[in-house]
Amino acid sequence: MKSRISINPFRETSPVYGPAQQAALNFEDAAEARKQLKQWPVYEQTPLVDALGLAQHFGLSRLWIKDEGKREPLKSFKALGGAYALGEFLRNRIADQTSELPSYSSLFEGEHASFAARQHVVATTDGNHGRSLAWGAKLFGVPCTIYIPKNVTEDRAEAIRALGAEVKQLPLNYDATLHQCAADAAKNNWIHIQDTSFEGYTQAHKLIMEGYTLMVEEIVDQLPKDEKPTHCFLQVGCGGMAACITAMLWEHWGNTMPEIILVQSDKVAPLVETFRTKIDQVDMGDHETLMIGIACGEVAELSKDLLYPFAQSAMTVSDDQAVAIMRLCATGVGGDASMIVGETGAAGFAAVKTAVEDEEIAAIIGLDSKSRVLVINSEGDTAPDVYNSIVN
Q1: What's the rounded Cα separation, in Å, for the pair 274 and 262?
Q2: For residues 372 and 227, is the Cβ–Cβ distance under 8 A?
Q3: Share of the chain above pLDDT 90, in %
Q4: pLDDT given for residue 199 in this prediction
């Protein structure tokens, strides 16, 4: 199936980071989140790989890959989000009781263990966000239940259980599972840490995106000082990762920022259809795609506030295109080292490969032999059985 591409009709000619954008992601709050996360005992920067062989293979000037598969202990950028948001919610609940905001070191040292054990945190996940939250809950000693939709594989569910969380699988798609989880959280006064936003629910998503910005700081720090990307391909599910990266690239480069191309599965692409029709779309299908991390029928409201003014276009890729990238990266090309790229991590790469092989798409997004491209390997082999069955 030919990839679909839609130019963003909401893009502003000379965009500014206005009140709606600051409300979605405040730069000062994001800087504070990065400061806090870099002090966590588990923090270690992940690499920005200069993939010269793959760039030559695709006919590009440069291809930089932010390898979040190396983000320990979860092999995903999600480690920066859910756990940090839970920490902030827990600190503020403690402050409500004691009138003093506790430090993270006091949480890690168990000074508030009794209070933490009386809380309960929940979220919906298709894999990586749930692992981040379960990991954070284990760090802070908070009981945790993770809701998963019907298409999540058992190895992903077991990875969450291994971190001490209860897993509750519902016979529903992602979006319906999410809304059930939200209703249960409200009914029981549980802490609800979701990597999306909707009417009346924004704070957790803001905190998660603030944590993700550390990934962008690492990218900018590792880029050659005299070079920057011309294009950035970002996979979109609920849109938190793509939104925060877009916002931070604007903060760093303003209106000379890279062209942002958003990537969705051809099985579930509400943003591609929104750009095509100029009307917000929701995909209520089964979302049966290998790229499970972007199997979301609704893009978060906060994500839209950050993506609509700045993104150039949105395009689709197929499961087969993602598989081809996973195998290509596992083998290594032109002297590049082998890289473990998970199913969703492959989406941005797949869009690059699709674009360079399709003259029409390449012309639309201005991709050519002079282009310098940034992609995010958002996950490694977070589902080892699935990954091995594909690449081996």
Answers
A1: 12
A2: yes
A3: 84
A4: 83
Which residue intervals of 174-268 are DSSP H helices?
174-188, 203-222, 240-253
**Burial of 241 from C-beta contacts in 10 A (0-12 / 13-18 / 19+):** buried
Residue 245 has pLDDT above 90, yes or no: yes
- DSSP code, position 256: G
pLDDT digits 0-9 by tens, 120-141:
999 998 877 888 899 999 999 9
pLDDT score of 175? 84
Query: Could you tell me where the beta strands, DSSP code E, fall in 212-304?
Result: 231-235, 259-265
Three-state SS for 90?
helix
- pLDDT of 284 over the 80 cut: no
Q: What is the distance between the alpha carbons of residues 10 and 71, in angstroms, rounded to a whole number?
A: 34
285 pLDDT above the threshold of 80: no
224 vs 297: CA distance, rounded Å: 37
Distance of CA 71 to the CA centre of its chain: 13
Q: Which of 1, 8, 2 is nearest to 364 (CA)?
A: 8
**Bond before 15 cis per omega within 30 degrees:** no
Q: Are 125 and 131 in contact (CB under 8 A)?
A: yes
Q: Three-state SS for 221? A: helix
* CA distances for 106 relative to 110, 112, 214, angstroms: 6, 7, 22
Beta strands 372-377 and 231-235 are: parallel
Classify residue 35 by burial, with Cβ atoms within 10 Å: 0-12, 13-18, 19+: exposed
Cβ–Cβ under 8 Å, residues 303 and 33? no
Task: Determine the 3-state secondary structure of 29 from DSSP.
Answer: helix
Q: Which two tokens stand for residue 368?
A: 């050519």
Of 111-115, 150-154, 157-161, the one with minimum mean pLDDT is 150-154
What is the band of 283 on the pLDDT scale with cuts at 50, 70, 90? confident
Decide: 335 and 53 in contact? Cβ < 8 Å.
yes
DSSP annotation of 145 reads E
pLDDT-derived band at 360 (thresholds 50, 70, 90) equals very high
Of 74, 80, 67, nearest to 40 by C-alpha is 80
